[in-house]
Design goal:
about 160 residues, two-stranded antiparallel sheet, 4 helices, alpha/beta, Rossmann fold
Amino acid sequence: MRIYGVVGWKNAGKTGLMERLVTEITGRGISVSTVKHAHHSFDVDHAGKDSHRHRVAGATEVLLSSRNRVALMHELRDDQEPTLEELLARLSPVDLVLIEGYKRDAHPKIEAHRAETGNSLIAPGDDTILAVASDVPLDLDRPVFDLNDTTAIANFILAEVGL
């Protein structure tokens, strides 16, 4: 599987870019999966639901299945968070995995940047960031795309991964 990341500070436009990229790339007939890193506790389960009750009772994994989707929840309890590599190994094969977050990992990435957030760029100090998608023009030593030019960004990523 080929992988490519989208990184950036909070409110930089990562999720919107990811969503547009998935739509654009799958629309070209290329299979895509995504991995999203969350820096906070999150729950995909809700109190009172059977699967939540199983998990709260102590189950390490709860597999929820229907004819429309399958969800596997793995409760880490006191275990360490799996590495990106370990998580990728759990995915079914696809042409491309787009990764949101994991900015410190070594895979190739594009940085999403919005000037209004006031955050500095990550790219100048990180050679795994191969391009920047920004809402303002930038003078950098790597390609800079308009944050909303999804087609150009998708073309760049697909060329980078050889698809």
